[in-house]
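WARN  no MSA supplied for this record, continuing single-sequence
INFO  ligand: arginine
INFO  echoing inputs
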Amino acid sequence: MTDQNSKPWAGRFTEPTDAFVEAFTASIGFDQRLYRHDIAGSRAHAQMLSHIGVLTEAECQQILQGLDQVQAEIESGQLQWSVALEDVHMNIEARLTALIGDAGKKLHTGRSRNDQVATDIRLYLRDEIDAIQAELTRLQIALIDLAEREFDAIMPGFTHLQVAQPVTFGHHMLAWFEMLVRDGQRLADCRQRVNIMPLGSAALAGTSYPIDREYTAKLLGFDGITENSLDAVSDRDFAIEFCAAASLVMTHMSRFSEELIIWASAQFDFVDIPDSFCTGSSIMPQKKNPDVPELVRGKTGRVNGHLISLLTLMKAQPLAYNKDNQEDKEPLFDVIDTLRGSLKVYADMMAALTIKRDNMERAAAQGFSTATDLADYLVRKGVPFRDAHEVVGKAVRLGVDTKRDLAEMSLAELQQFSDAIGDDVFEVLTLQGSVAARDHIGGTAPVQVKEAVARARKRLI
Ligand code: ARG
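INFO  complex generated
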């Protein structure tokens, strides 16, 4: 049986907590990862209490030193987390009080676990967003470097996964980069709402002590303080927003993954994913599987799932704090871990990726990828676009029947479809001519890729 005396809230209880209920309601198994931020919040709170005269300077010093000691014990693995003490907040407070006595018992003055936990999560998530942004930037740099190196490598561009028009590989990498730019902006925007301090809301209504919330917020590096205590202790919008932003990052990486997996197949053979990012098969000796992109594609599912979990967790919750909110942590933590890990492994993998230019170019020469160029050529010769489209369609038909590309036909053969075709047509039918022609901001021409690379470097945050 649990010792009721160890529970700070046990005063009004006459029976001990049922052993299973104790384990069922505890969060220490997963919220212990908040310990550093919980201690940082307590330090600032104690300093504020001393600043307003609720704690003496000596008591504050005792608390700060005691918290240092608790942190050291946690980090050296000495502190035994207790399920009876329910969560990280009460575990730390109990250990502090065991170490320093009465001053430890005064720390919780003017505060509740409700505003404490909301503050801890925000502090923790703020740090994690910064770490995630750093990984995101590393991945962006890897993509820019790849785009710069392979700015003029020609590959087939697809729509409907059918060959559409030739594009440059650099242009393709910068398309991925753009998705990540928006992701970085979304995370930065989300961080603004994360970095607001709920501390001082206490349980739900505020506190009767003359607290100085701005003082605490400044110590903790918050950009502002929450306006309404009822909202502040119950709000988890910031976590939902973060998960939504994370879902989009993962969705983007799942798209990159799908392409890499296709490109790494024997049928495409466009890229070489380094061995260090692949695994083999226990039964098929020839196999080299693109596990990293596959896993990232798969992990997108759990992140999307956690977003739905949090939305559903908050749906229809009455004000203010409810124990339901304890369920915010595991989904949020798993999203953080999954996103951070996926970005890290992707940044490393993309920095080591090599491409097979010849195979890409050969593939781009198939599927009549310069058909649009022939139509544009005819338009320049005065043929209306719709007529040009039909002319080229007929030429493609001949190519399909005789298994040849447009560039492999003779001038006479092409001229049977339109007398506007002259011997200058072959320049536009080459892959190089096709990509070079798309020479404007946002186009695939190698010169444009070079300029886009330079701009991309400047846009990194
Ligand atoms: N472990 C709780 C949570 O994660 C802390 C707040 C609990 N507050 C309370 N009054 N039971 O939400």
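The pocket of arginine is lined by residues 27, 31, 87, 113-114, 117, 323, 325-326 (CB under 6 Å).
INFO  checksum written, moving to next record
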